[in-house]
Amino acid sequence: MKEVKAIVVGAAGRMGARLVHIIQETSLMRLVQAVDRPDHPLIGKDIGEVVGLGKLGIPLENELKKGGDVIINFTNPQASLESIAFAQKSGMAIVIGTTGLSPEQLNRVRELSKSTRCVFSPNMSVGVNVMFRIVQEVAQVLGPEYDIEIFEAHHRLKKDSPSGTAVKLGELIAKAIGRDFGKVGVYGRKGMVGERTKEEIGMQVIRAGDIVGEHTVLFGGIGERLEIIHRAHSRDNFARGAIRAALWVVNQPNGLYDMQDVLGLKG
Ligand code: NAD
Questions:
Q1: Active site residues
Q2: Is the shortest distance between the CB of 121 and ligand 1 below 6 Å?
Q3: Average pLDDT score, the chain
Q4: Closest Cα partner for 235 from 215, 211, 217?
Q5: Cα torsion through 77, 80, 82, 86, rounded to 10
Q6: Closest C-alpha residue for ligand 1 atom 22
Q7: Those residues with Cβ within 8 angstroms of residue 252's Cβ, 6 or more apart along the chain or in another chain
Q8: Model confidence band, residue 120 (pLDDT cutoffs 50, 70, 90)
Q9: Which pLDDT score is estimated for 122?
Q10: How far apart are CA 42 and CA 15, in angstroms?
Q11: Where would you tag: which of 79, 86, 165, 249 has the fewest CB atoms within 10 A of its CB?
Q12: 171 has a pLDDT exceeding 90
């Protein structure tokens, strides 16, 4: 099988560094370019040295060039939009793992994906994507007598809150039981908020230390509760999922896909 040529954007970041490491171990993929923001202090240095692998002969660059099959971007919303616009212009596929995109930015991704092969997922982990599927079924089976609460915990450096994954869990569960998460989502509680309504889906957030990522969906009934928990032990599960998505998306027609598509969990 032909090697897939990958470009990592955000290569000097936490996820970017893990991607560079895992691509080096992956015989089906080869790193051809590493990009970071124009004012990054390590621009021009060998990316292998930046991420602790030793010289790879690939410098950290400050702008995207043609020549790859797929871009993998874990950066910020603005830089992700720039990458998908570049992918669309140059005919490359793209995998975006960045979270925290606004509704307008998500619309732009949807628009550009009509003429680009794009996987966009706030969580590339295989376990979380299985969780996305089963929480919907559990919510349907348990029915309205069970209160639903979501909580997530991440490291102290995470900028957006709640996590994209927690929001997606809320949206999927709400939809599966005929509610609108925009209306029933309750973000934190403080003061005399009154009794919990039956319909609401609570969302609580923890930021502490170096927690890689934890998501819990709690279904609270009378006399019992059921919790579905996913814990990421390291960033490698996201990076491995992103690489799996990149190898998959290069062979798909134009369109916007998520990890459920990549893993064949839909339908
Ligand atoms: P990070 O801050 O360590 O890395 C981001 C990198 O992007 C930095 O090196 C930064 O310099 C670079 N960058 C910023 N602007 C840029 C630009 N214009 N062009 C190129 N590079 C640019 O952050 P991180 O922990 O690696 O996370 C990055 C994103 O990925 C966040 O949105 C995070 O929430 C998300 N994330 C998603 C998943 C998932 O599974 N989808 C998993 C982990 C993290």
A1: 154, 158
A2: yes
A3: 96
A4: 211
A5: -160
A6: 37
A7: 93, 117
A8: very high
A9: 84
A10: 16
A11: 79
A12: yes
